[in-house]
Automatic annotation (TrEMBL):
InterPro entries: Amidohydro-rel, Metal-dep_hydrolase_composite, Metal_Hydrolase, MTA/SAH_deaminase
Lineage of the organism: Bacteria, Pseudomonadati, Pseudomonadota, Alphaproteobacteria, Rhodobacterales
GO molecular function, one term: hydrolase activity, acting on carbon-nitrogen (but not peptide) bonds
Pfam families on file: Amidohydro_1
Alphabetized UniProt keyword annotations: Hydrolase
Gene (name only): triA
UniProt keyword Hydrolase present: yes
Family statement: Belongs to the metallo-dependent hydrolases superfamily. ATZ/TRZ family.
Enzyme nomenclature, EC number: 3.5.4.-
Protein name, as recorded: Melamine deaminase
Record domain Amidohydrolase-related: where: 59-423
């Protein structure tokens, strides 16, 4: 058994009392926290390894509840032209990507998340929109392998494309076209779940995802959509999986409830321009909502996150990264969330720092059913811990730690990251070959752009 003590830090615990402890000591044994409190109240066991936390803010590991595999390499294509970028993602993900592409992207995005203090993330295996690389299990296997190599946790959202089927993909070795059916994709999702669904243990989990259908789409093909929903839910229940979706709006949550795809095991991203009935359906079903305040959908519509929270709906925060205008900096997304809703209501007190900190820690853990293990610094919970370097001009004077973390911090302030009791980064140094990861990412994008004749999307606009 290995015992480690963090001393002299300011701990933002996110526990039930939302304690903020100055001159705190945190002790963990192997992968679990055994003590959290002021230095005067915690006895450090003899022989414990010591981490000096002087000049730091310490938080539970951040949880990003919605992001996309693949986007880490394509994020800059098109210089912000949304339609061109979405089309490029479809071309590359379905017809122009190789095993090397998915491996390089998984390693790059994992490195970025680690250095931003994100210890747990839901990653959609594709998207942009509804193009999932589940023709075989290879891309998913590569992503999970990169997660385990990095040491963080990833909930991989594996899923189904939008009807109608079949879809034409190009194999990852680029040797042949594949006619992809709904049944093919569902079988691959089942294989990935059987191999990788152990988020707390190995660091990889699997949830299911299928497209959001709007009421008018459903009316055109109700029986096919109902059958697909039943099949996905049958697998979800059989394998004990979570379920997520990307892009709810304007009546689609109410419809989803009638299709039997909502429950306390579901969490729905974006969720803008919701009707009263949508909000009530989320509340009745115990569904969580994932708010993505920096996403394009939050420009085109508004997620009523404060209103949902007031109703008792659990709301988590997601980066929706990577994309043409955003990355994995959850501190940016916290500040964006505050300004987004304060501007809407013209009220600087609609949301407060503690609210957004909850949304990417304890409430995010609740969305994936793991609030008993993740999301706060408490005895018995996993030792997923992030330490911020507070000895910087933008953090001074060293007062009001909640405000400092939610409104002044950025990803570059993350000094130390601990996951499962393992120190993965200390003083911003990891054990990974970061140069190799960066070089591979650059080369794989260059190759994918050439394969798909997308060089014109590399030009910046004036």
């Amino acid at each position: 058994m290995t015992t480690t003590a963090i001393t002299g830090t300011t701990a933002i615990t996110m526990d039930a009392a939302r304690r903020v402890i100055e001159n705190a000591t945190i002790v963990y044994e192997d992968d679990r926290i055994v003590a959290v409190g002021s230095a005067a109240d915690v006895t450090i066991p003899a022989g414990a390894e010591m981490i000096d936390g002087a000049g730091t803010l310490t938080l539970p590991g951040l949880i990003d509840s919605h992001a996309h595999a693949g986007h880490g390499l394509t994020r800059n294509l098109g210089a912000g032209a949304g339609d061109a970028w979405f089309d490029a993602c479809e071309d590359i993900y379905t017809r122009g990507s190789t095993a090397g592409f998915w491996q390089a992207e998984a390693q790059l995005s994992a490195l970025e998340r680690l250095k931003a203090g994100i210890t747990t993330c839901t990653m959609l295996l594709g998207g942009g929109a509804d193009h999932y690389r589940t023709d075989t299990r290879e891309a998913g296997d590569l992503h999970c392998a990169a997660t385990r190599e990095t040491g963080i946790r990833t909930m991989l959202a594996a899923g189904l494309n939008r009807a109608p089927f079949p879809k034409t993909y190009r194999s990852l070795d680029l040797s042949r076209d594949i006619s992809l059916s709904f049944e093919n994709q569902l079988a691959v999702c089942a294989e990935l779940a059987e191999s990788h669904n152990d988020l707390l243990g190995t660091g990889t989990g699997v949830c299911l995802i299928m497209p959001v259908y709007q009421p008018d789409e459903f009316a055109e093909n109700p029986e096919t959509i109902r059958r697909m929903c039943r099949d996905v839910m049958d697998l979800r229940e059989k394998a004990g999986l979570l379920f997520t979706q990307d892009g709810h709006r304007n009546g689609s949550i109410e419809l989803a409830e009638t299709l039997g795809i909502l429950g306390p095991w579901s969490y729905l991203s974006h969720s803008v321009d919701l009707t009263t009935q949508d909000m009530q359906a989320a509340k009745r079903s115990g569904t969580s909502i994932v708010h993505n305040p920096s996403a394009i959908m939050s420009i085109l519509g508004r997620c009523p996150a404060p209103e949902l929270r007031d109703m008792g709906v659990n709301v988590a925060l997601g980066s929706d990264a990577a994309a043409p205008d955003r990355g994995y900096d959850m501190f940016r997304h916290m500040a964006q969330c505050l300004h987004y809703h304060r501007r809407h209501f013209r009220d600087p007190e609609v949301m407060m720092p503690i609210d957004v900190l909850e949304m990417c820690t304890i409430d995010a853990a609740r969305a994936i059913g793991l609030d008993g293990d993740l999301g706060s610094l408490e005895v018995g919970k996993k030792a997923d811990i992030v330490m911020l370097d507070r000895e910087q001009a933008h953090f001074y004077p060293p007062i009001m730690p909640l405000t400092a973390a939610a409104q002044f911090a950025n990803a570059g302030d993350v000094d130390t990251v601990i996951v499962n009791g393992n120190v993965l980064m200390r003083h911003r140094k990891t054990k990974l070959d970061e140069r190799q990861i960066l070089n591979a990412a650059a080369q794989e994008l260059t190759d994918a752009v050439a394969r798909c004749d997308l060089e014109h999307l590399l030009q910046e606009t004036a």
